[in-house]
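Posting for a labmate who doesn't have an account.
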Amino acid sequence: MNPTRAEIDLKKLEHNYNSIKDFIRGKNGRGKVKICGVVKANAYGHGIQEISRKLISLGADYLGVANYDEAIKLRSVIPDSNILVFGTLIHSKLKPSAYVSKLLKYNLIATVASLDTAKFLDYYSGRLGRKFKVHIKIDTGLKRIGFDVKRAFKNIEHIFGYKNLEIEGIYTHFATSESGDKSFAKHQLNRFYDLLEMLRKAGMKIPIVHSANSGAILNIKDSFFDMVRPGLLLYGYYPSDDLRNKIDLKPIMNLKSKVTYIKRVDANTSISYGRKFFTDKRSFIGSVPIGYGDGYWRAFSNIGKAGIGGRLYPIAGTITMDWLMLYLGVKSPVRIGDDVLLMGSDDENYLGADKLAKIAKTIPYEILCAVADRVQRVYI
């Protein structure tokens, strides 16, 4: 058996969920705010099915996924809860009635980001004698998908005229919610507020309004509306250093492996591809079966460290697809079979995804999502 695994602590997930819930309650003066747990991209690498089960057991009102494949996979283990699909439909030319029938069968909630999507769902839902539940996506400045906020009112009027759509929600997404400079986020929020006011005056009532992602939850309290959409916060990380420690979070994943081979090499011996590391003394090298094929980045070569028995050991040489080597020193207490912490934390060391992201010059989202499917998830 491959000793490389991602240990997912569901108690820490519960802690993070409750921290978010308590924070929202403390900041919000409008009563209960629903929570949509964002579980797209395999729950940010943590395992969509197990994470979703836990979130629903904790009281999450909705689960948010990226596309319909994720939603259908999730529905097989979450039979009754609300699943909102953030992505847009591809308007299938191949048996569209069967396509829409399948989505209705799984009781999914669609994002409507264009009139084409609204028309498609309305027409084929009508043929099937069903109503399709939808949330309308508004582009207030991210310029990804959604009705442009300047022209959204007229489009929404059209959608309200479709008899086979149940308009349950409306939402937008921030471009800079995690930033210390809130000016653009507030600009987006004001544009969204203006549209909502126009809709209210026209008598177009939409039950669930939402806009707050993880950054906005911590940074823009006026963005909560009826529901918030935490993602990264659930998994124990802050969206930026500006928001660090606003609530108490615990990373829920420890990426681990084991030392499976130890060799003693002479001074001035090169280690791994490209000969980027040379020993300065006769010393021990430990080999660990994890590499970039498992989602542990090659960028950590000769820079990163790993924890064994409460001590940190430097990565020696280039990380390969399936292996990395650690410099264990001239004398070493490390033995074959010892656990190796590559990401996460133990009692002595912190190697969180945020710390690794700084080394790789990226964001913790990408570090977490990179953990490969071949890495076994073990739920604690």
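Reply:
Got it, the structure tokens are right above this. The chain has a mean pLDDT of 95.
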